[in-house]
Amino acid sequence: MARPDAPRIIDYQKLMELLQVKDFRDVQDLSRAWVTNGVASQNHFRESRWTESITVGTEGFVKATQEKLGMKGKGREILGSNGSYQLREAQTAYNGNFDLGNSDLRSENTYF
Asked: Quick one: pLDDT band at residue 64, thresholds 50, 70, 90?
């Protein structure tokens, strides 16, 4: 981890308060322990809220992030409840209609 006073998105002072630790090294130790335990456990699965979201946090944080994105934030969905929210791209159905655009891509259409 970087220095606790370096510019970043994470408020390390607040994080230390929430974790009830007094030293930044304790945050690093906790983080290492969580990763070690996670790797050692057999519960290896991907959580979509962390891997498919633009941002995750409190409702206020997610709304503020959406506003800061300006036009790029428009049309994105805020999902969640009970203090855990996420900003995500709207899910659209995959449309495999390539008939016109790929009509010239045939096996006899080769350049050899």
From this structure: very high
